[in-house]
Design brief:
Elements (H helix, E strand, L loop, with lengths): L7 H19 L5 H14 L1 H30 L8
Helix pairs in contact: 1-2
Length: about 80
């Protein structure tokens, strides 16, 4: 799996969220470098878990849609003398 990369704007927003979390929940100030280090750590160490969960969720939605399409096609099928 390729490393998860964010644009500079995305990374800046994530860094801000991490810094605000540390202040609000842990009463600690962390710098930009430390927050960026955490982003890299989570992307490398646990990112695949979130990525795979997203893939599984997308797969479930797709399978549901395909089942609906299959049902819809069956409903408009014309009768013939051929047996399936």
């Amino acid at each position: 799996m390729a490393m998860i990369e964010f644009s500079a704007e995305e990374k800046s927003l994530i860094i801000d969220k991490i810094q605000r979390y540390f202040v609000a929940e842990l009463d600690q100030d962390i710098g930009k470098f430390e927050a960026e280090f955490l982003i890299d750590f989570f992307a490398e160490e646990v990112g695949a878990y979130f990525y795979n969960r997203g893939l599984n969720d997308a797969k479930a939605v797709l399978e549901e849609k395909l089942a609906t399409i299959s049902d819809d096609l069956y409903e408009i099928e014309k009768p013939t003398n051929f047996v399936r």
